[in-house]
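Exam revision sheet. Question 4 asks you to relate a sequence to its structure. Input first:
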Amino acid sequence: MNAQRVRAVAAWCGACLIQSALADVTAAADSAQPLERAEGRGPAFEVSVEWCSRQLTYGLADNRDPIVVAGALAEWRGLTFEAAAIADTTRWGRKHGGYGNRQGTYQEFAFGPGLVHAWSPDVHPVLPTTVEAFVNTVYEYHPPVRKARGEENPDTQFVNAGVALPDLWLTPALSAELDVNNECGAVYLSAEVGHAFTLVRAARGCGADPLTLALGCGVGGGNPKRNRYDADFDAYALKDVWVSAALEWWLTDAFLVSPYVAVYEQAHGRLREAARHALEGETHASTQLVGGLRLALAF
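Answer key, structure tokens:
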């Protein structure tokens, strides 16, 4: 049960913690795992490492080259603490990112506490289905840059909250992100649905299904301040739309191997234009295709 419980918590928390890395393409499908805890159990933990072909924030490319993300999550009675470090694999930060050469080392460290809770119809008969909710805060620390060279990469902090209905066949989830530091007042909202198809079922009493295919899709939106920072226009607007697929292979009850792929596009024309011309002197397609591989150990 520890592995299943950590999967559910990681689905909620990871989406907000490493949103800037890869938007956690498996979050909607993974949240279908209910938050369960046997009485007397101690804390649950997960550590992970992930390779992703491109770093995105709200569907816009922060780094068009591959990144590596190392993460850790602890959960006890609904209280969580999580941390993730993003490392560049190329000199993108010096060429285009404006934060210097971070090849082979971290360029962001995010961490923060949170709270996850589930209300079950077994305990609350008025509910037609299980309702899960979370709230957390994430601080993003960036290493010092050389301001004399025009580099810039300020720290920031977010407050996140969300709700999902994990027992439905098509799992819906809503979440909100509020920047309370560097881009104070910028709000990003997302709505997504997902479903995990069982490809190989577990033997009776053997825990989680060893092989599933998690499919998801969603849409994001931003307030005027969010869009001012992303595309220099002051208006409420839909932002990124996406579809994703992840193969989740539990080699053991505790060790997960998960390759994934996702496609992002901008719903608003101004954002599509910003995506095409994010790099000075270069033009790229606004559509973003990302793929990756995640390894996780739950205990």
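Marking note for examiners. The chain has a mean pLDDT of 87.
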